[in-house]
Design a protein that fits this description.
The structure is a single chain. By secondary structure, the chain is of the alpha+beta class. About 20% of the residues lie in helices and about 35% in strands. It is built from 4 helices and 12 strands; from the N terminus they run βαβαβββββαβαββββ. It has a 6-stranded mixed beta sheet with strand order 3-4-2-1-12-11, with helices on one face. A hairpin with a 2-residue loop joins strand 3 and strand 4. Helix 1 packs parallel to helix 2 and helix 3 runs parallel beside helix 4. The longest helix has 15 residues. It is globular and about 45 Å long. The two termini are about 25 Å apart.
């Protein structure tokens, strides 16, 4: 990567349980560390599946992956918490957890933050959208407002988007024209492009990747992108 390039990674770890019955978060961290991202968005972080391991995944993943971060817990029960995380090696400011919940559906959240990278500010929105078309349509409208108008903006997560009619990608691409195209679900034989990274401007994308070895850990594959801030943050 060039000096002005930032690497971001998004991954639905499915509680590290779907294809990882030993609840081994170390495998999650090892795979992420191999890609050496500076900013990480994780979905389906689930302390309810501790199964006696004595590990709080929100605390463990924060400690292992970055100095700065926030967990957005969308479900809290007597057994623990479920939600998502945004983790960064660099300071985060103006961080807000937005409620995207739709009536009579599972609670959903979006984490928005300004990452103070050494190359300039970077707007990040991390999310995990719902399963119904009407739900995602309403959530996408909120996401567009949350994204704002900063020169370099990245939105990433599990968008649960597989229909073209009323699709998330059609709406988001008007505001964030750069996007990844990997098939990520189910990880054992990927068919659906549920997990994506969107970017503004389009030219900020340097390269994008996925990692098929993740199929041993989760039912989703991660998506990784290198984003350049060289020249595009001027005046931000």
């Amino acid at each position: 990567m060039s000096d002005a390039t930032v690497r971001v990674l998004t991954w639905n770890i499915h509680g590290s349980f779907g294809r990882n019955p030993r609840f081994d978060l170390t495998r999650v961290v090892e795979l992420i560390d191999r890609w050496d991202p500076q900013i990480v968005a994780l979905q389906e972080v689930d302390s309810r599946r501790d199964r006696g391991a004595g590990i709080n995944p929100f605390e463990f993943l924060q400690r292992e992956l970055g100095e700065h971060g926030i967990g957005a817990k969308s479900i809290t029960t007597d057994d623990g918490d479920y939600g998502q995380m945004l983790i960064s090696r660099w300071p985060m400011s103006d961080t807000v957890v937005h409620d995207l919940s739709y009536p009579e559906r599972e609670p959903r959240r979006a984490i928005a933050s300004r990452i103070e990278t050494p190359h300039g500010p970077l707007r990040i929105v991390a999310t995990h959208l719902g399963l119904s078309v009407h739900e995602r349509r309403a959530q996408t409208e909120k996401l567009i407002a949350i994204a704002g108008d900063e020169p370099v903006t990245i939105m990433m997560g599990d968008f649960n988007d597989w229909f073209w009619v009323g699709s998330v990608r059609k709406a988001l691409s008007r505001e964030l024209p750069g996007r990844t195209h990997f098939r990520t679900f189910p990880s054992i034989c990927p068919l659906l492009r549920l997990d994506r990274i969107y970017c503004r401007p389009r030219g900020a994308f340097v390269d994008c990747y996925t990692d098929r070895s993740a199929r041993a850990v989760s039912d989703h594959l991660p998506v990784i992108a290198d984003v350049t801030l060289n020249g595009v943050c001027l005046g931000a």
